[in-house]
Design goal:
The structure is a single chain. The chain has ten helices and nine strands. By secondary structure, it is of the alpha/beta class. It has a single domain, classed as Rossmann fold, CATH 3.40.50. α2 packs across α8 and α5 packs parallel to α6. The longest helix is centred in the middle third of the chain and has 26 residues. It is globular. The protein binds NADP nicotinamide-adenine-dinucleotide phosphate (NAP). GO terms for molecular function: oxidoreductase activity. It comes from Trichoderma harzianum CBS 226.95. This is Ketoreductase (KR) domain-containing protein. It holds the Pfam family adh_short.
Length: 344
Amino acid sequence: MKGVSLDTVRTSNATLKNLGPGLVAVFVGGTSGIGESILKAFVGATAASKVYVVGRSQDAANRIIKECRQVNETSEVEFLQADVSEIANVDRVCSDIIQREKRLNLLVLTTGILTVDGRNESPEGLDRKMAVHYYSRMRFISNLLPLLTSSASSSQLSRVMTVLGAGIGNRMVESDLDLKSNFSLSNCGAHCGVMTDLMLERFDATWKGTAFVHTAPGVVKTNLGSGLPTYLRAAFKVAGPLLAPWTVGLQETGERHLFMATSNRYPPSELPNDSSCGAPTEKNGVAEGSDGVRGSGAYLLNWDGQIQKQNRDLLEEYRRTGMAERIWKHTMAVFDSCSKDRNS
Ligand SMILES: NC(=O)c1ccc[n+]([C@@H]2O[C@H](COP(=O)([O-])OP(=O)(O)OC[C@H]3O[C@@H](n4cnc5c(N)ncnc54)[C@H](OP(=O)(O)O)[C@@H]3O)[C@@H](O)[C@H]2O)c1
């Protein structure tokens, strides 16, 4: 299947007002970069939506809230301040949302840090980079799935999107999933990517009315490198123009991710009869899920909506050998241990 044209993306996004009014969305990592651009595309394309933006920077949130008001004054954007490298903070934010909302239509996860530092453990015993790229995102999904399911049960949009490195992660250190002893940047990238690929399938197997999308966004110029040492930032600045042909503009990435998060080209595995729960597909039809089955509810996508298949054999091996199940059990055990430590 070819990449989706920008015209198709825009035509589809222009129909999103038909899904509302009053869609509810949560953007974790929406205070900058790719998350911010998807948030703004969502606010511009929907009617009277309620948006929660989760992050640390109050200044960025104030700016975004102001800009969103100019884009669409019918929408309401609220900031929930949290450092989500700790699961306790994820739980606090989720319980706040659960108290206030009866349903959720869209959960977008884009938190990220780019650092060359080694393992940096939080008091919960997780590396903070792995936490923002993987563990806290999985916790948001698992905490908020009941609200997403309420939307699915009433034939409304119900989608999860996580932006990281879909379908490209290499073999993991299988005996050390949280990289306590084998931490490196490349292992961290592989573990967070592959574990996400397989966890979305596992969520999808149970929560069939929700679609799960993992993307690899390509090269997008954002604030991601701001924490790097000066010499590396200078090197990126020099390399920037060389990467230009492969760079996706910030606004385009927002529009494309909004499409991937809402189009019925990527539907949940159980679509209600009333297919109004996503933007209608055009002639391109329904995409192949990560298991190779069309419309199976969990999707690994490239920057332009194409199916990302680079590590398909590895994922198949991990399903066959029980590694996918081990990843699930490991992740749930980490969450149990974080909760237990908090309550003891
Ligand atoms: N840009 C690219 O070319 C590219 C390529 C491949 C993959 N990706 C992935 O795409 C995702 C988004 O990247 P981006 O380029 O949009 O980065 P970005 O502009 O730096 O945005 C990262 C977001 O994560 C939030 N964040 C980071 N640590 C946090 C924490 N501890 N608690 C709460 N929020 C936190 C930041 O918010 P606060 O500052 O408010 O905390 C910010 O909103 C990342 O996972 C990245 O690895 C990006």
